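User: Hey, my collaborator sent me this sequence without any context and asked if I could get a structure. I don't really work with proteins. Can you help?
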Amino acid sequence: QVQLVESGGGLVQAGGSLRLSCAVSGRTFSTYAMGWFRQAPGKEREFVARITWRAGFTYYVDSVKGRFTISRDNAKNTVYLQMNSLKPEDTAVYYCAEARNAQAMPIMSFVRAYDYWGQGTQVTVSS
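Assistant: No problem. I've predicted the 3D structure and written it out in structure-token form, which is a compact way to encode the shape of the chain:
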């Protein structure tokens, strides 16, 4: 059974920083990539960033490029999202997700590419 547990969310002022963590347990040898998504109230869940588990290739949505950094620690089975220069529009519940199918790479920015999800952690950025 695969479990993803996010932590590190909270309330921060605009311009501040937070680091989210996602601990993965279970069959991690089958992990192809990890992603971070977010969902604001009344909006659809949107892609933020992803990283391939072995090679560490990363990709970001344009709105967070230069501000957010995704990384992973294979030994700890943990993926991180360092968020700097936070803006009020970054306020959302942030979810980590695991993708197991390398053939899903062309759609890795979409929810349907991912097989397992965490419960989410709230990030609130005040102006």
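In plain terms: The mean pLDDT is 95. You can pass these tokens on to your collaborator as they are.
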